[in-house]
Amino acid sequence: MADLKEKIRDHKMVNLIKCILAGFVTRDALIPFVTNVMEDVKIYLRRQTKNVTCGICSTSNAIDCPAKGTCNIYQRKCSFHSKQKFKQCVNGVCQTVRNAIAQLHRHTNPSWCNTDATQWLTESWEVAKCFLPPKGYDDKDSADKTDINGIINLIINCRQFDNEIDDDLCKQENVCTMVREKMRDIRHASQTKVSDDVMHDVINALTNLLKDIRRSDSVPECINAIRKLNEIKQDNFDIKSQSIDVQQDVWKELVSLNVEDKVEYLYHHFSTKIQIMSTEIATLKDAPETKHARLTEDFQEDLKNFYIKFKNQLPIYPLPPRVKGMVEHLYVTPNVIRLDHGKFNRESQPHRHSFRKSYSADELHLSDILLYHGNIVNEVYIEGEPGVGKTAFCVKTALAWASKRVPTDPDRFFQSETLGQFKFVFLVFLRDFSGRECDIDKMIYHHILTNLPAKYTDQFLQRLLDEEVCLIILDGLDEWRHNNNSDCFCGAQTMIPRRRMRDKCVVLTTTRPWKMAFARMSSDIEIEHRFEITGVKDPRDLAEKVIQCLNNKTGRNVLPDDFFNSVEEHNLTHCLNVPVLNMQLLYLWYTGGKLGSSVCDIYKNMIDMLFGQLRMRLSSGSDMEQLRDDANDKTQDDLLEKLQKLAFDTLIDHERESSIVFDQSVVDKVLNSEEKKKSLQVGILTQRSFLQPNAQHGTVLSFLHKTFQEFLAARHIATSVSQTYNLEKSLANLDGHLLKIQDIATFFEFLCGIDSEKAVAFSASLMNFVSYDCEAKLNAIGTENSVQDLQNLHIIQQAQDLILKGLRESKSNQHEAHLYLTHVTDRHVKNTEVWRELVERNESRIVSVYLEDHNDKPTIDVFRSVFASSNDTLVYVTLKERRTAIDLSRCRHLKYLCIAGEKELAKTTASTESMITCSLERVSEWTEKVMFAALSKNSECLQNLHVHQCKHTNDLVNMLPELKNLKRLKICHVDFTKEPIERLSETLTYVYFELVTINVVTLDRLTKSYEGSSHSVTFKLKECHVVPQQEFISFKENISSSNKYNVMKDGYKMQAQNLHLDDVFDGMDEMYVFKYSLNPNTKLKPDDRKCTTLYDRTVSRV
């Protein structure tokens, strides 16, 4: 038996030798063929230049920067053009040849890094190298030195061969791609065992290629090669019959396949001379570049197969996770919006609750997310609420890269040309490493490489990440937290996993918005691109695909239109844009369940359905005793009560990442082993295993979906938490910071539908938190901030939308909660009647108001009523682009007032006795006069003043010295040459003039007035006109030479020296910032620099 096994193994090793030899035979036959075609290409190129040659321009000179797939720009530096820059060819030749080569390339993406442009018109193989793979072929100066993989890629990529091959090379699968795939499979045969079937497939593919060459019957090399391939297939073929040179080539190939430990078994198949030479030849295995190039190709193929085999399914909610559908059958193109430079612009997108496609104003594709002006960006963040399809997006991206077929994507969101720029795509689910690993490289190794052949080491991975263009996808930043190891190099407080700085790597991270907001506040994150997935473009398409998938599983023939009609009848169309709700509604309807009339009804019915499905499964089994127990609702209710407690306890975990995925020990505190087993059987809990860094397997659990957890937590508060429970404490844990209001939106919506009294208390606590946040921002701001930042508009609008959403759910459940709303804005209100009703109910407790221009009289009347009724509560008011009169004179507690863009007929009066910040931007003449007078008389609390344009400069000049406690002053668009400022408040620490005209005498007087002051004062001039100019130069020289001042920026000087201000101030023109300091030699504190960061950004980009 042992001898038989040896013979079988030996036979399969011979098959490997045959495949390798067949590759060499085919390559040798193709060499004259491809050489002749490339000579024709050279002649064609010379015709394009009318036989004019250059020979001077290097490849870097000939290629524009950035070039797709070649240039890697990091911090505005291109590695390909680092030594020689692009320039126009003096002979007018090289760019013409370059364009012609690009047009000949099937993907218009030649491998410029392979080739020498000085030889394009003299050496045909230098042109051929433009069509070879970009790695490992730059030193191959002839076809004889190029392996079969390079030859096949040349035929595939160069359009000139379309006229020489019968098969259509534009197809995804053709005679050439078949050869490429088969030969790659052979290189993957790391066990040196190749079956007869595989060997025959390889040789048949090679034979078919040779036969497909037009007029191959008249090409002697092809005829001989086809005959030779037929001989190799025979059982009695002996490689010893081949020449020593051929045997030596085959032996070298075997050694390079990383199977050195198996080569000894192959000795006896070769001639004695080869066996003697084997020790010398085996040293070729130490040729690292050749070996690494082959290993890289093998790894790419294995990685793609790994995704296709193990990541090609998505769950159909609310079915248990084991019930899934193929990604290509379920996935629908997402609706993605851009969040530029961290600004919240969700409200600018259309909100459609219909069955038509939902398109953003700016149609985005994957290229817009991963590339910027054709070049990769290093950091991309994609936000999204629970259930909108973030994880599905990540899986689809990896599969689109791995797919060997053109993806069925009618919207062309996942363009192959975009993903084709990445050599590797690494998909990591961060929840599997929460609290266990913080290094991205280690996550990739444990998540992916441990599932692939052992030849792929950690060192190999590090080299790939350093050298290749890679896309790293990190899904679920909000589900990850740092480990508790205080000795960790990156520090235990980091908000994001640790990554190394690599100019060729794109790190795409998905997260819920609250984690993004926290991460942006930390110093360990930089954002180049920020986007949001708001749902799917076509809700109907998603529903149709899921119905088709369910029909295939059940054998039914359910029509999608019946579902859509039912959803419309129940007024639930607004739920369809969120994929998870779409699928839950659909499955509930598909199985004959009641849809209900509210979101709470949907989730209650789905949970009942999950328990019912378990009873049906058990009824066909043997455990009838358990079935009878389950038939009793009390058993189900008892388990639900415990699940509700588990949901609540984990949801309010102060470490929010632990609230989604939690350890076994957390579950054991609430559920016994039988209850846990039943919860997993029902499908409301899911369990996953993961590989820890110490190679031990661990287990984590989570709810079926985050929304189920929030629904059960809301039920726990409603049924098990007393009315005296400290809801503010729960809100603090649940929310942690008001930038995470979105994160509690679903939970609050459920609470409003279940328990209106608790919802009212919760809304009051929420409004208190908004007030605390506004107060904190008010005491921290300076005059650099925009009006919206000062007024916390983003948070206020989110909170108001949250309350309105909860009110709708409350009404849908036949009870109306009298929810608190103390922060009000009229921006982007969808249901004005409900909003007015809510504001009128709370008008005596309003704390902040953000009012824009409204010709709508009912809305204006609502605000006037608020101003009249909230005298004792109103603190923050913003009035923009207004024509009407507003009286705030009785609002004694008003701390913040911003008036912007008033029309001439507008009139505003306000109490200033408690005012801390006042911003008057382009106000009416009447308002200006009244407010200047009020501030002159009563401004004891005023610390921040912003005046933009002024109609009565004299009134402003007279008012400024009266502001006894002013700390920060910003003045824009004012001419002080006729009415100069005599003095300013002694308490000022920051003076900012923008587009101001001022005499240098006035500036000098104001500056010197603070010499001897007990505190530091910063002066900033942005695009100001200081006259006379020559004296301003002298003024600056005196400041620079004085030991009392620090000059922080001098844009005027840089402009005078004709320097590129775009590289210094990011587009800002003249800038001069200097600071009087008691000790100028002391380094500036971070607080001292805050005033310059917004407008004085350096080359570093965000």
UniProtKB/TrEMBL annotation:
Domain NACHT span(s) in chain numbering: 378-479
Domain of life per record: Eukaryota
Gene3D superfamilies per record = P-loop containing nucleotide triphosphate hydrolases
Among the Pfam families in the record, one is NACHT
- Which PROSITE patterns does the record associate with it? NACHT (PS50837)
User: Would you tell me the protein name for this molecule?
Assistant: NACHT domain-containing protein
Q: What is the lineage of its organism?
A: Eukaryota, Metazoa, Spiralia, Lophotrochozoa, Mollusca
